[in-house]
Amino acid sequence: METITNLSPIILALPFLMFLFLGLCGNKLFKSNPNIAGWIGTAGLSVVAIVSYYIAIQYFWVEGKGADAYQQFVLFNHEWLKMTDNLVISIGFMLDPISAMMLVVISTVSLMVHIYSLGYMHGEEGFQRYYAVLSLFTFAMMGLVVATNIFQMYIFWELVGVSSFLLISFYFIKPSAVAAAKKAFIVTRFADMFFLIGILILSYYTNTFDFLKLTAVSDGHATLVNNTMCGEMFMGLSVTSIAMFLIFLGGAGKSAMFPFHIWLPDAMEGPTPASALIHAATMVVAGVFLVARMFPVYFFEAHDVLTIIGYIGAFTSLFAAIIACTQTDIKRVLAFSTISQIAYMFVALAVSGYTSEHEACLGYTASMWHLFTHAMFKACLFLGAGCIIHAVHSNEMNAMGNLRKFMPIAHITFGISCLAIAGILPFSGFYSKDEILVAAFEHDKVLYACQAFVAGLTAFYMFRLYFRIFWYSENPAHAHHTPHEAPMNMNIPLIVLSVFTCYSFFNLVSNDSYQLFSSKITADRVGFELETNWTIAIASLLVAGVGIAIAWVLYKEKNDKPDMIAGKVKCLYISASHRFYIDEIYLFITRKIIFGGICVAIAWFDRHIIDGFMNLLAWISRELSYDIRDVQSGNLQQYAWGFLVGVLAIAMFAIYY
Amino acid sequence: MNILSAFVVVLLVMLVAVFLIPGEKKNAIRWTMAAGSMVILGLAGYLVWNFLAQREAGATDKFLFADSTVWYEGVINISYSVGVDGVSVAMIMLSAIVVITGVFASWAVEDKAKEYFLWFIMLSIGVFGFFISVDLFTMFLFYEVALIPMYLLIGVWGSGDKEYAAMKLTLMLMGGSAFLMVGIFGIYYFSAEDGGALTFNLEEIAANAAMPIEWQRVFFPLTFVGFGVLGAMFPFHTWSPDGHASAPTAVSMLHAGVLMKLGGYGCFRVAMTLMPEACKEQAWIFIVLTGISVVYGAFSACVQNDLKYINAYSSVSHCGLVLFALLMMNQTAMTGAILQMLSHGLMTALFFALIGMIYGQTHTRDIRYLGGLMQVMPFLCVCYVIAGMASLGLPGLSGFVAEMTIFVGSFAHEDLFHRVLVIGGCTSIVITAVYILRVVGKILFGPLYKIEKVGDQYNYVSEHHGEVHHYPLRDAIWYEKIATIGLIVSIAIIGLYPVWISDMISESLEAVAAMLN
Amino acid sequence: MIPVEAYLVVSTLLFFIGVYGFLVRKNLIGILMAVELILNAVNINFVVFNRFLYPDHLEGYIYSLFVIVVAAAETAIAISIIINVYRKLKDVRVDSINELKN
User: Fold this and answer.
1) Mean pLDDT over residues A549-572, rounded?
2) Who among B172, B372, B405 is closest to A81 (CB)?
3) Residues A618, B171: contact at Cβ < 8 Å?
4) What 3-state class would DSSP assign to B460?
5) Which of A286, A525, B107, C84 could form a disulfide with B479 if both were Cys (CB 3.0 to 4.6 A apart)?
């Protein structure tokens, strides 16, 4: 215990120090050889990764298990800002099953991205800056998941937002990158505002920020929230529900749930490895993590909100999956698939129970499980996409085809990840997604039907991508130069991540491996024995198979069937490929209504009415002055007249009054 | 000598010294300024350290380092009384930082440099004098001392429509002063029970609490609006955009950074502390007005094209938040307000410094005609991004600390209406992000616009009445770097480790907050 | 014995003649003369009131002497100014002397 307590500050301090070091002196010190900055960053992150693994392993297998449940340890908690005696923002380190799991996810993906970027970003201007921001991101993400109080989470929440901004705008000369970065920041910021308001409401009633106090459960209630907020109403709605819904909206912003999803596809303007780290594996699941962190409150005190979350999730996953089928930019396909998969995690949380008895909290476990597996295979997909883009110098599918011959490693790892995301036995995605479907089936058939359909769509569009890139026909677009395999430092991360994706092969032979998540990560931290529901497993395998088969028919070789189908459902196809015009609606609201309407009107009002009034006052006093200044003519005799009249008037007054 | 008077004395010595140096020895003047403001900064640091040490040692007086000398006694009792609590210490620290960075930011002033610096020192005397005073009359005196140089500094060394701006600023602030004077004499007249000795001393007035409520109702709004004009309270804020836009760099810095804080500080120290009952009654009116300021300023900033206008409107928004939080009248919110003054002072000074440095080279501040500066002057642009991040409340920089304390504190208000207003105020964090990123995206990022590259040299090409000008561009030079780095470090210190300063301010507010509740 | 009212009538007449002259004359010399009339009206009042009301006191006489002395000094200065003005501007009318205006 002492060891992990002593080690834990490293996880936050080291990335932060690296950020400062690389950010402040990176450009000067490593001017001649920027690679050193990359190596320093990678080395630092390796240390962080080792410490994270050590802490996670110690926690799960040695220290963490209490009498019946995993304990929540607060390893350190420093007062950062004291607002009142109770409302104190601390920077601390909370170790519990989900934060320990997140440590592993973040450090793994981040390390892989660091290594990968050594090759991918080689020779880019701003290489040092890139590594500095990666360190900042790692710091922020780590701080977010180990937060001991909701305000610490908010602090790091904002920090991940800004590192995302800095990475998307990495190629800041490109106007599209700048626009995307702005969009991402402002949209998430908009959602963060709701998060903040939610925190304010929550802390107003409960008078604490502390997660341990907020999520403490007894007698089927989140005690503190129940005692302080229960029965409070605002405009006919329960205040608890409002607060928790607002907090969820914050999560929805970061996790790109409808209607805040619009920033994520554009965020692909950033360097691909950064997209893999931030916009696929880690930052975008912050919203899921947030809901999971506050799960007892949602479950016991705001269950209606949880239901809403489920439906928003289901809708988003369907919506994003449909769009993904029509996109041609491979990174955008992946982006929409990310949205869709994260929505799965929300659905899983929504259909979960709280206790481990009778697998009630299966949804919670499945959500976290899917978070883990998704992080690995999606990062792998993105990094693979990076290799492909590196090789063909284009994001567009049209420029690709038949690449399996040139890039075998990328092909195999990409294929593995596609199988995983499609949910094919025994890849990791199968297990996690299957458990989500089981939980949904037991809880709400509508959600199940929707998610099962989305699973089929997922298989379809992922294999559309796969076939289109690696099979299809010989493509003239890259005829003039041969695509080549990426260098080793880019391939190693692909291999490592696909190994993580294949870890689940053990599930077939070892029950320990199969129970890895269910025994450790549950809502009440007790753990349960997972049993396979073969009916649903087979059903989902079938659905996935159908999806893959359709993709195989349509995209294995060049043919005109896809166009034909698109022509048949033209309306749907066009609106889907325009992402259902949500961006345009947003643009209309922001440009025309907020900018063109409100802001311009206010600015006009300020200049012409408010300032005009002040100028009017000045004008009136000036005109008046002009009028009365003739009185002061300098003509002595005129004054004397005035004097005389005045004296006489006073005399009259004195005599007759 | 009392350490507080030392601030004024050092500045007076600087005044004499600069006066004696012949005008053509500009470097001598500059270095005198730099040395003098270093001493001021040192004094301020020493003051903070000493203040904390004394509090640590258990000094319980409201005002520490108190000292008092009678100026005039008889018909009217005026004395020069000084003393500081946590709030004033924070403000003095802020002023010292802004003054020294302002000196470095005005290093490049060539035209009538001596006179410029003389007025600059006058302004500083007013500012420091105001913050150390605990006597209303002295306070008002220093207040006026700080306002008058503004007219000359803008009118002579400004740019654009400077005479108009200078006149407008001075008249509006003087109008505020007029209200204020009535208010202050009202307070004086009711400063003691019938037959007691009247006094200007803040502490004694507060202790006597002799003003009847019906008179408080008259004088509170006068005093509050009087200071509120300087605090850019809606609808008395319009001097700010014009004034800032025309003022020379360091004057904008000092004005937005410190002078506007006189308003908030005065509202708190004079209006609210001395007339608590009326404050409680009328607070809601001003809360609504300042709430409007917050959102209104932010929306207005979104569509401005002049960098300084953007920043001036953003100041309206941020300073609105200061008064908004003060009027919530609880310890946390008020602490947040003071923190916001501190943080806004630093970051807006940084903004104006950077805008001045960019404007000095491109000769335009219009964001429509700028683009891609990041490639040309990376240092300045990175600083600008940091300033922007501080302004939109990024954790780790001071803006976050202040805003969050304000929001949490204000939301603790027991009245639902106030809490709903706070939620309205929260929207400003989004709008702030919009206008900050608009500028960052437009002028710093993106491809070069109107900038040509000749060899290694970038030139800004501007066409004016058919004439083409080529202005050479460069990154920051040493004195500019000192100014910006100084401010950024201060912002980061508050942002990274806020607990000491928030505790220092908070404990000074305990008594006031208790009285107001 | 001439009654006091008679003196007062004379002095009042003198005073208002002076005031009238001061108000309407344009010539500086004329204005100066009008001022002298006013002063002398005052002198008469001083002397008369002293003589009729407080015959034992001398303040009235002394004040009238003061006034005469001051008036003499004033006239000397005024005349010299007027002469200078005339030399400079070739004019001694009040409404045309407005060099300091604007």
Assistant:
1) 82
2) B405
3) yes
4) strand
5) B107
Domain boundaries, chain C: 4-96
Q: List residues of A whose CB lies inside 8 A of any C CB.
A: 634-637, 640-641, 644
- Cα–Cα distances in Å, from A349 out to A220, A536, C67? 18, 19, 107
Closest CA to A170 of B374, B252, B435, B452: B374
pLDDT value at position A55? 92
pLDDT for the residue numbered B60: 77
Handedness of CA C51, C53, C54, C59 (dihedral sign): negative
Residues of A in contact with C98 (CB under 8 A): 634
d(CA A556, CA A470): 9
Domains of chain B, by residue range, sit at 3-516
Mean pLDDT across B491-503? 90
* Cα dihedral C54, C59, C62, C63 sign: negative
Q: Which of A302, A311, A282, A277 is nearest to A156 (CA)?
A: A282
The answer for residues whose C-beta is within 8 angstroms of residue A427's C-beta and 6 or more apart is A377, A416, A419, A420, A501, A502, A504
Record the tokens describing residue B385, joined without a space. 């991004």
Whole-number Å distance between alpha carbons of B382 and A133 = 13
Please give the helix or strand (H or E) that residue B84 lies within, else none.
Answer: strand B78-84
Neighbours of B240 (CB within 10 A): 27
Does the beta-carbon distance from C94 to A640 stay under 8 Å? no
**Residue B219 and residue A592 in contact, taking contact as beta carbons nearer than 8 Å:** no
Place of tokens 């005198």: B32
Locate B203 and state its tokens. Answer: 């502490």
B411 and A CB contact within 8 Å: yes
What's the CATH code, domain C4-96? 1.10.287.3510
Give the tens place of pLDDT for each residue, A175-213. Answer: 899 999 999 999 999 999 999 999 999 988 888 899 988
Q: What is the pTM for the complete model shown? A: 0.89
Cα–Cα distance for residue pair A284/A265, rounded to 1 Å: 12
pLDDT of amino acid A339 = 92
Enclosing H/E stretch for A90:
strand A88-95
DSSP state letter for A45: H
A637 to C98: CB separation less than 8 angstroms, yes or no: no
Tell me how far apart the alpha carbons of residues B509 and A203 are, in angstroms, rounded to a whole number.
22
- Distances in Å between the alpha carbon of A234 and those of A231, A591, B407, B419? 10, 32, 20, 12
Q: Say if C94 is an interface residue toward chain A (CB within 8 Å).
A: yes
Is residue B470 classed as helix, strand or coil in its secondary structure? Answer: strand
Does the N-terminal peptide bond of residue B235 adopt cis geometry, omega within 30 degrees of 0?
yes
C23 touches chain A (CB under 8 A): yes
Residue A475 near residue A560 (C-beta atoms within 8 A): no
Least CB-CB distance to A634: which of C19, C31, C98?
Answer: C98
DSSP output for B309-348: HHHHHHHHHHHHHHHHHHHH-SHHHHHHHHHHHHHHHHHH
- For B69, phi and psi rounded to 5 degrees? -130, 135
Helix (H) or strand (E) holding B459: strand B457-464
Cβ neighbours around A464 below 10 Å, total: 25
ipTM for the predicted complex comes to 0.93
**Chains interfacing with B (3 or more CB pairs < 8 Å):** A
Cβ-Cβ contacts under 8 Å, A637 against chain C: 22-24, 31, 94
- Kindly list the residues from chain A whose CB atom is less than 8 angstroms away from the CB atom of residue B304: 603
Instruction: Return the higher-pLDDT residue of A223 and B391.
Output: B391
The pLDDT value given to residue A476: 52
Q: Could you tell me the CA-to-CA distances from B389 to A52, A158, B393, B436 in Å, in that order?
A: 30, 11, 6, 8
Q: Does C1 touch chain A (CB under 8 A)?
A: no
Show which subunits contact C, needing at least 3 CB pairs below 8 angstroms: A
